[in-house]
Amino acid sequence: MSELNIHGVLVPIAPNEVSPEVWNALETGAYEANEARRVARAIRPGDRVLELGAGLGVITSIIASVEDVRVWSFEADPQTTRLAKRVIDLNCDGNVVLSNGILAAGPSKTVSFYRRADFWMSSGLAEQGPYAEVIEITSGDIDAFIEQHSINAVVMDVEGAELDLLQDAMLPGIERVFLELHDHLYGLAGVQAITAAMAQKELIYDPRGSSGPCVLYSIDDGERKFDAEVAHAI
């Protein structure tokens, strides 16, 4: 088994445990590179973070490295969850709770999840392309979970499910949401709908933590001092 260093996170995964495309992204350092550069700017010491779409646990581990942070992370794919647990156990200091499951807006319901060879293409959308397996999963209520665990920040990469989720969920007490947009699945109209829904929750597009499809929405907490490093990165 190889132990790769991906954005400062040790990833003990063998080539035969992921698809060739995913393995190539891991070997070259392209795996979740944009998210890795940005996510730490969306998280602050002491945050209580809900992560939806853990993938291999690389971004989870980066979040968990921020001082005094607690993370509750969900991954729908059971096989990917097992790999993520291995990564999280190696890199994190007991401040991550990883679950195999889905959170959605509203009462529990049965959700069809379409597993694909490239796990980052697995999603709740059958029309996204050929799939290897369909898994039926009972969702949990995201708003109830947020309130129960006093979550104040959300990170998500859920392959298009963000469109309905962010329009329908209330997100009580959330100060920041960092996500990857998937405009190839719902077009610019979907991006506009997400931004409008976030504005209704007083979460504003924040260019200081955004880059391309990786977008940060924040509450307006007042003017910040100029940060040359952030300005250059943007």
From TrEMBL:
Assigned keywords, A-Z: Methyltransferase, S-adenosyl-L-methionine, Transferase
An example molecular function term from Gene Ontology annotations: rRNA (adenine-N6,N6-)-dimethyltransferase activity
Presence of the UniProt keyword Isomerase in the record: no
InterPro entries in UniProt: FkbM_mtfrase (IPR006342), rRNA_Ade_Mease_Trfase_CS (IPR020596), SAM-dependent_MTases_sf (IPR029063)
Domain Methyltransferase FkbM: 70-185
Gene3D superfamilies, sorted: Vaccinia Virus protein VP39
Pfam families linked to this entry: Methyltransf_21
Protein name as it appears in the record: FkbM family methyltransferase
Species the sequence originates in: Neoaquamicrobium microcysteis
